[in-house]
Design brief:
Elements (H helix, E strand, L loop, with lengths): L1 H17 L2 H22 L10 E2 L2 E2 L5 H13 L5 E3 L5 E3 L8 E4 L1 H5 L5 H4 L4 H4 L10 E4 L1 H11 L5 E2 L5 E5 L2 E5 L4 E4 L1 H9 L10 E3 L1 E4 L5 H17 L1 E5 L2 E5 L1 H7 E6 L2 E6 L1 H16 L5 E7 L2 E6 L4 E4 L1 H12 L6 E2 L2 E4 L2 E7 L4 H14 L3 E8 L6 E4 L5 E2 L4 H14 L5 H13 L3 H11 L1 H10 L14 E2 L1 H12 L6 H12 L7 H4 L3 E9 L2 E10 L2 E10 L3 H14 L1
Parallel strand pairs: 3-11, 13-20, 17-22
Antiparallel strand pairs: 1-2, 3-4, 5-6, 7-10, 8-9, 10-12, 13-14, 15-16, 17-18, 19-21, 23-24, 23-29, 25-26, 27-28, 28-29
Helix pairs in contact: 11-12, 13-21, 14-15, 14-16, 15-16, 15-19
């Protein structure tokens, strides 16, 4: 029994020695060393060590490419202070990038690699980043950029314009924006010193022999203007409205106030939009007097009588704002609200005689009374054969009315055998009846723009043209002439005339002249962007007439209304 006890005691002692604090410490240290060496050996080769600094900038544990880009940006933004020998103020402070200095840090960053033999040294990951790798960025210089900078800031004569002091309105406070002295220097010296400027993060200042040019408006002048204006603003701008005086609050004045330079002086201005809107909203209704109506009775182009309405009144917000500006500038002590006279509106009571003159007057007055621009031609083909026009020779872009010209050219070719009707009947019908574009464009391409222009001009349509840039163009008179020839079978065969009139009668666009007429209408419209055109032959119980309306910015409703008024006179 005692023997077993002795053996057990011996094993216990051996185990105790194996796990003694010393042995545990040695094992732990060895394990940590293995882990540390493994970490160092596996540390990414493209990543800088912790605690690394380049040019005093902490870049530890960052990718080399990112560090190079970061340093490139830091160098590009470094400012070089330039002084003239005539004073101690900075004239300009260009960045390296502004003067064509490009510092590339890619290669120098690679020198901060973590070599394999250093990785084998325990704890090197913690201290090798502190080891100084004395090197500098690669520098490239651009003469073109440098020359551009000097030209842009100094010009060819090496003059730097001074900057006047001004005043900034910041909420309820006026602040001086300081002036900056200008100067004049030697171009070659400035160029040479900027061209050879050392590249470093803390650049030395550059001093160029030169003279100082002081600004017209100094800081002292701006301070004096602030003191003057502040007294007026604090006292409040006074606006006299009728017999009462009103104060414009300081907050409003600060909200509107700005400064401009006029005749080398700082001039207080009030924002036109803000001030005038406030004046209108505050006093507009109080001062408004509605104007009356002047009634004018006319017959054709002759005024028969006029009953003049009373004038009205409204606030002149612009003139009132200017009066407040003069008070703010110290020219006056009280500003009177300014009003302006509002002319009475004019209402016409027009009548027209059933004559050429009467219908001409109707066309002219209609154009004056309705939105848009117009050209209009009216021709009666039988009965009294009255004629009237308004700007009949004014050219408009044809829109789809050009399809009447394409139709004429096709029918002419069918008549002389160059085209067959059977091959073209369907396309011709779609071109006129539903204003199909592909069919019309195919005819233009086949016949040629010059040929069609020559053909229509040979029958008298002298102001219509497909070949002038921006066209095709036509006039109300030319379209009316073509329709007149169509109705009279002049330059059209009987069969060609009937084919075109049949398609025009079946035209699906009926909101203009057809909507305003009580008769049967054969028409062709054109609409493009703001253009609305209608060219029609109208058959009524009292006779046949032609009406062509070319318009820009009008409406089909207006064209229909004109037609109704014409038929009322007839």
């Amino acid at each position: 029994m005692f023997g077993n006890y002795h053996e057990q005691s011996t094993n216990t002692a051996t185990t105790a020695r194996r796990f003694s604090p010393k042995n545990i410490a040695l094992l732990s240290g060895g394990l940590l060393l293995v882990i540390a060496l493994a970490f160092q050996l596996l540390y990414p080769s493209d990543t800088l060590l912790p605690f690394t600094k380049i040019d005093g900038i902490a870049v530890g544990a960052k990718k080399q490419a990112a560090v190079a880009s970061e340093l490139d940006a830091v160098y590009a933004a470094v400012k070089v202070p330039v002084y003239f020998s005539s004073d101690d103020t900075v004239k300009v402070e260009p960045r390296y990038a502004d003067i064509g200095v490009n510092a590339s840090n890619s290669e120098r960053v690679k020198q901060y690699n973590y070599p394999w033999y250093i990785r084998l040294i325990p704890s090197s990951v913690l201290w090798y980043g502190f080891v100084d790798k004395t090197n500098e960025p690669e520098v490239r210089r651009s003469k073109k950029v440098l020359e551009g900078y000097i030209a842009g800031h100094f010009g060819s004569d090496c003059k730097l314009k001074p900057v006047n002091a001004t005043i900034q309105v910041a909420k309820s406070e006026l602040k001086v924006v300081p002036s900056v002295n200008g100067g004049e220097c030697d171009y070659d010296e400035l160029y040479t010193k900027l061209e050879k400027v050392p590249v470093q993060l803390q650049p030395d200042k550059i001093v160029v022999k030169g003279t100082t040019i002081e600004p017209t408006l100094s800081d002292a002048k701006a301070e004096a203007e602030i003191s003057r204006a502040q007294n007026i603003i604090d006292a409040g701008l006074t606006l006299q409205v009728a017999d009462a005086e009103h104060k414009v609050s300081k907050d409003k004045v600060y909200e509107w106030l700005s400064y401009s330079v006029k005749d080398d002086e700082l001039v207080a201005m009030l924002n036109a939009k803000k001030a005038e809107t406030w004046l209108q909203d505050t006093y507009g209704k109080q001062l408004a007097v509605s104007p009356g109506v002047t009634t004018v009775v006319t017959r054709d182009f002759t005024e028969l009588s006029r009953k003049t309405g009373k004038t009205g009144q409204a606030i002149d917000a612009g003139a009132t704002r200017q009066a407040l500006e003069e008070q703010l500038q110290g020219k006056t002590v009280v500003s009177k609200v300014v009003t302006k006279t509002i002319s009475p509106t004019v209402a016409y009571e027009r009548s027209y005689s059933p004559t050429d003159r009467g219908i001409s007057a109707l066309l002219k007055n209609f154009a004056a009374d309705h939105a848009g621009s117009y050209a209009m031609t009216y021709i009666e083909l039988d009965g009294k054969k009255r004629r009237a026009e308004y700007q009949g020779d004014k050219q408009f872009v044809t829109a789809s009315t050009y399809k009447l010209f394409a139709a004429y050219s096709l029918l002419k070719r069918v008549d002389d055998g160059r085209e067959t009707w059977s091959a073209n009947a369907d396309c011709f019908d779609k071109m006129i009846r539903v204003s199909d574009n592909p069919c019309a464009e195919a005819y233009l391409s086949t016949f040629g723009l010059t040929a069609i222009t020559n053909e229509i001009q040979s029958i008298g349509l002298k102001n219509s043209n497909f070949t002038v840039r921006g066209g095709p163009f036509t006039t109300a008179n030319d379209l009316a002439l073509l329709l007149g020839q169509l109705q009279a079978k002049q330059n059209f065969s009987t069969l060609g005339r009937d084919r075109l009139l049949s398609a025009m009668r079946a035209n699906i666009f009926r909101q203009g002249i057809p909507a305003g007429s009580k008769g049967q209408v054969a028409n062709k419209v054109g609409f493009l962007d703001g253009l609305l055109h209608d060219a029609a032959i109208v058959y009524t119980s009292s006779g046949t007439y032609i009406l062509v309306v070319l318009s820009d910015g009008s409406s089909w409703q207006n064209i229909a209304e004109l037609t109704r008024q014409i038929e009322k006179i007839r």
